[in-house]
Amino acid sequence: MPQPEFIQERLKSLDSIDDLLLSTLLHASQAVGTMEELKRGNDNMKPQFENHTRSFYSSLEQATVALRHEIKHLDDSVGTRLLPINVNKKATGQDNDKLRDQFEVLGRELNDDGGR
Amino acid sequence: MSDKGLLEQLNRTTETLSHSLTNLIRYSSISRERDDDEHETYDVPESIAKTSTAGLMMVNAQTAQLVRGIQDLMVMTRGIREKWLLTQIPDEKTDSQQDLDLEKCARLLEQWEKEVLGKN
């Protein structure tokens, strides 16, 4: 089902948050990896370690800020675009379909009658 | 309400995450850290094995915390996605086709009244 533009935008930004979160984890592992090298006495890994740590914190920060924005969007949209409570709506639009169906049947019947 | 809960969880998780890398690195150098640790005193001299085991456990715990925190945040993004998709108020514009049918429907109903009920 195609979603409205706004919701597609939100989903896209949530995707990018996921990417950021994963890169946070990646940077953490890289930082730990370079630290291992440092412990072995490889002193020229220091700037790399610093870089990885820095990018860990910056991606964590970006992800958090973006997530905060998303929560704000969510908060703003309750009542206009979203229902405030969880409901099970399984067959939305079924009533309209049924109505259309019935009118079609009626139209056919009437046309048949008119033909007679 | 629920959004406040989300914010709080976000704050908590981020804080844990930002600490856990620091802790991870601190505990991985536990043997040196003990030397310049001021506020804790160790009466019993600890064996190297004990120190390294404790350090290893701490490192494991912190790594698990890091991964779990990220996992929690991803569960949160998934929850937000679900909210957008499942509780959205259906767009009325998609039903505009229905409006076009209305006049035809009215005519059909009138015709039905005439023909079937015999009203004039």
UniProtKB/TrEMBL annotation, chain A:
GO cellular component assignments: mediator complex
GO biological process: regulation of transcription by RNA polymerase II
Gene3D superfamilies linked: 1.10.287.3490
The keyword Signal belongs to this UniProt entry's keyword annotation: no
This protein's UniProt keywords: Activator, Nucleus, Transcription, Transcription regulation
Pfam families, per database record: Med11
Residue ranges the record marks as coiled coil: none
InterPro entries: Mediator_Med11 (IPR019404)
Described function: Component of the Mediator complex, a coactivator involved in the regulated transcription of nearly all RNA polymerase II-dependent genes. Mediator functions as a bridge to convey information from gene-specific regulatory proteins to the basal RNA polymerase II transcription machinery. Mediator is recruited to promoters by direct interactions with regulatory proteins and serves as a scaffold for the assembly of a functional pre-initiation complex with RNA polymerase II and the general transcription factors.
Protein name: Mediator of RNA polymerase II transcription subunit 11
Species the sequence originates in: Lachancea meyersii CBS 8951
Automatic annotation (TrEMBL), chain B:
GO-annotated molecular function: transcription coregulator activity
UniProt-listed Pfam families: Med22
GO cellular component: mediator complex
Keywords: Activator, Nucleus, Transcription, Transcription regulation
Keyword field contains Magnesium: no
Keyword Repeat: no
Gene Ontology biological process terms from the UniProt entry: regulation of transcription by RNA polymerase II
Tree of life domain: Eukaryota
Task of the protein: Component of the Mediator complex, a coactivator involved in the regulated transcription of nearly all RNA polymerase II-dependent genes. Mediator functions as a bridge to convey information from gene-specific regulatory proteins to the basal RNA polymerase II transcription machinery.
Family statement: Belongs to the Mediator complex subunit 22 family.
Protein name: Mediator of RNA polymerase II transcription subunit 22
